[in-house]
Design brief:
The protein has 373 residues and is of the alpha+beta class. It folds into 2 domains: 255 residues, no CATH class; 63 residues, no CATH class. Helix content is 34%, strand content 17%. The chain is built from 12 helices and 14 strands. The protein has an 8-stranded mixed sheet with strand order 3-2-1-4-5-8-7-6, sandwiched between helices. A two-stranded antiparallel ribbon has the order 9-10. It has a two-stranded antiparallel sheet with strand order 11-14. The two termini are 44 Å apart. InterPro entries: PGBD. It holds the Pfam family DDE_Tnp_1_7. This is PiggyBac transposable element-derived protein domain-containing protein. It comes from Petrolisthes manimaculis.
Length: 373
């Protein structure tokens, strides 16, 4: 893939974003169980053709997010693959279907459910996954091959649903809300029963949806969270070579968001905002003890590790305006040069403090780095 194509993909909108109002017309967003979608940094996917057996080979970077639990609010990125040219396809599957199957291979025969958007959903993929004891659910394009016209072209009223199932256990649903929504599922529990969402219309009527829609909407948020968090404090710069941007995004975007997700999940009493977590990583790399380096022909004494505990900044809870305090470093510097009265008025107010120092003093980043160097 050349440089111009890469930049075109990089600047494209996230392909899944256009589906939010289609999948959930009320604008509700819920989460992901085992969800498959494009990386946000990698909106490197061009649009595929409508038929699954002729999917575009320009999909340059895709990922699978999965978790063992039933609730993946955090959006942990479980697996990914960078497009490196034409690859082998599975018998009976197109390029995109084969890519999805490759990413899901480690999860085969575990009874997992894969949720994906209409870029990936197709009948051949669903039938193949069933042979691997893996279910599939997702929105589907009406132009996909093999979809029954009795469902895709059915004239139904708002709130109604029609469905058909083939001999292999693949079900296609057509549900009408503000617009028609088409889903494909092999999950046994999914049928055409409308389930109350717990919400009501302005007229007091219960809002109901098929279970396939409810489960799909529940699983989509994990992908959105992963994309959103990796884009907040991106390390990407226009001057970098495109191939370096891929490495930078995977290391400084996807990997850090994954590490932050695990940290907050298993250290719930010490949760950190993403920015504070990134800063703590940078500081630990800058101030950490160097490892012993052995050079050929030279004897070097071993370098002992520092016994000091690693310090890091933490964002104070609550509204920033109310939780801010004067930076102790700025105050000390100003009080020496201009007096305490001026320092009390001019010292920078910050909402970050050192979690390890005695008294947990509030500090700005430059003062924190200077005091802990």
């Amino acid at each position: 893939m050349n440089r111009n194509i890469f930049y075109g993909h990089l600047q494209a909108h996230h392909p899944g974003s256009s589906e939010e109002n289609v999948d959930d017309p009320e604008g509700n967003e819920d989460d992901t169980e085992h969800s498959h979608d494009e990386l946000s940094d990698s909106s490197y996917n061009t649009e595929s053709s409508s038929d699954s057996d002729s999917d575009s080979e320009e999909a340059s970077n895709t990922n699978t997010t999965a978790t063992e639990s039933d609730d993946n609010e955090d959006g942990y990125t479980w697996n990914c693959e960078v497009y490196c040219g034409k690859s082998d396809t599975y018998p009976g599957l197109g390029a995109t279907d084969s890519l999805t199957a490759r990413l899901m291979t480690p999860l085969f025969d575990l009874g997992m459910t894969l949720y994906c958007d209409n870029f990936y959903t197709s009948i051949p993929l669903a039938e193949y996954l069933l042979t691997q004891k893996t279910y599939l659910c997702g929105t589907v394009r009406t132009s996909r091959k093999g979809l029954p016209h009795e469902v895709t072209k059915a004239k139904i009223k708002k709130g109604e649903v029609v469905s058909l199932q083939n001999n292999n256990g693949v079900k296609v649903f057509h549900w009408k809300d503000k617009r028609s929504v088409f889903t494909l599922s092999t999950v046994p529990e999914h049928d055409d029963t409308l389930i109350p969402t717990g919400k009501t219309t302005r007229n007091g009527e219960d809002i109901t949806k098929p279970k396939s829609i409810l489960d799909y909407n529940k699983t989509k948020k994990g992908v959105d969270v992963s994309d959103q968090m990796s884009g907040y404090y991106t390390a990407l710069r226009k001057t970098r070579k495109w191939y370096r941007k891929i490495a930078i995004e995977l290391l400084c975007g996807t990997s850090i968001v994954n590490a932050w997700t695990i940290y907050n999940k298993y250290l719930a009493d010490k949760k950190l905002p993403l920015l504070a977590f990134q800063e703590s990583i940078v500081l630990s790399l800058l101030t950490g003890s160097p490892s012993e380096t052995i050079r050929p022909g030279k004897q070097r004494a071993s370098i002992s590790g520092s016994s000091k505990e690693h310090h890091f900044l933490v964002e104070a809870e609550g509204q920033k305006r109310k939780s801010r305090k004067r930076c102790v470093g700025c105050y000390e510097m100003l009080s020496v040069n201009e007096g305490s009265r001026v320092a009390s008025a001019k010292a920078k107010k910050v909402s970050t403090f050192c979690q390890v120092c005695d008294g947990k003093p509030f500090m700005c980043m430059p003062c924190f780095a200077a005091k802990h160097n």
